[in-house]
Design brief:
single chain; mainly beta; Neuraminidase; 4-stranded antiparallel beta sheet; 0% helix
Length: 305
Amino acid sequence: MVIDPATSNVWVSNYGFAAPAPECPTSQQPPHDSVSIFTSDGTAIAGDTGITAGALSWPQGTIFADDGSVWFTNCNTSTITVYPDADPDRAETLDGLGLQQPFGIVDNGSNIFVAGTANSTLAILDHDGTPIAGSPFTGSGLDRPMGVAADDAGTVWIANSGAITLPCPDRPEPGPPATGSVSYVDKATGQLLGPFQGGGVTTPWGIATDGDGNVWVAEFSGQRLVAFCGTDPSTCPHGSSTGSPLSPADTGYSFDGLDRSTGVAIDPSGNVWVTNNWQLDPQPTNPGGHEIVAFLGLATPVPGT
């Protein structure tokens, strides 16, 4: 979900998660190929079927880039859909980017960064969709990456789940369990640095940066929130360096009200908001989570209104 900065309309990509047939019959499957748009008061303005232009297919990450274009990552087809100037009639589909199951996407002000979850890659594109030299990145700093986030200086942080692949609808084998990590792309040098572990990190999914550029991670496999020092260690406890864990070593910031969290965001008051995506004991076929958890004033406020 993303908000259009020009109109305040809300764009929601429809991944259409549901149990596979026969648990959820084919006739009752939700659509997996559209985006819905709502006004700020909740009025739907994209019709009953939403917008499908640009070959949307199990879309995941959605952003408004700095130039006003809307970008979607298509998990099923390993492509990216772009609506220049938020105009679906001008839809473009980007292919051949070296990504498998693209997931998180972010604009750091200079380039578009996209995580390829299934093949542990990070594509870096110009705003016209052209990959930069050396894209996609691979290597030890990437391990089943999920969320990506940029701080105000343009540093891009990556949440490496270490294990997760996605059912969209086919799911690659996730591989052996591994401890997750975070890594980052330095804005000045373009280098991929990391991985960084500790602070209770196990299976990071969502990621965000606060007003000091410090990093906050939603944990899918543990009931915890994890934090790392950003690229300005002067804002962190004495002796910290970039990538140092800030949360408690074994538990993170734990709370029993968290259930397999995936999304995290920081607001202008420094509150950290975390979404519960799944249930720890998934007895039903589709045991979705139902809660949002707030850690009040835990982070440095981000600019906003």
